[in-house]
Amino acid sequence: MKALRYFFCVVLPPLAVLMTGQIASFFLSIILTLLGWIPGVGALYNAEYKKAAIHVGIFFLLSILRSIAGLPAIRFLPFREIFQFLTFIFFVYMAFDSYHTAKKRKLSGK
What we know:
It is built from six helices and no strands. The chain is an all-alpha fold and 110 residues long.
């Protein structure tokens, strides 16, 4: 049961919270999970507004490039898949960057 909860902590966090029986925390977890999909929210949480704007800009640039790569004239090339993968990697980077920045801020006492 504990291993299943750890699995859901990574894959579907609200379900892991629901398994603990805390209903109020479950709804908060849903809201925070949905906010986590918005680019730059982690940087905003850490009061790094310039970095948040850069994150949003990079996300929109990757989205535009992914859309252009899906046009029929160049669809035979694997550019769309490459930009989808880069977008995924960027989301993972934003999460780790926000976590480590928050950890540093907590240790420094800011």
